[in-house]
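stage 2 :: seqdesign
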């Protein structure tokens, strides 16, 4: 759109617009999701003292072929 000014000058008038979209859905709050992720990661961590002694050894023979 042309913006007419004095003394033969003109400019371009810009109309600024903004749109925002909001999606509302059911689910967990961010805090609940973070707690669940943290618990899931902590489940996968094995402590240094954890060992399975009820499993037989595999590949018992030595890897040296001399």
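stage 2 :: out
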């Amino acid at each position: 759109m042309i913006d007419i000014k004095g003394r033969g000058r003109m400019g371009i008038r810009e109309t600024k617009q903004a749109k925002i979209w909001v999606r509302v859905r059911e689910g967990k709050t961010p805090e609940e999701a973070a707690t669940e992720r943290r618990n899931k990661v902590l489940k996968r961590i094995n402590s240094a003292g954890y060992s399975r002694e009820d499993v037989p050894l595999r590949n018992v023979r030595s890897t040296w072929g001399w």
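stage 3 :: structure notes
- The first strand starts at residue 2 and ends at 4.
- The chain has one helix and two strands.
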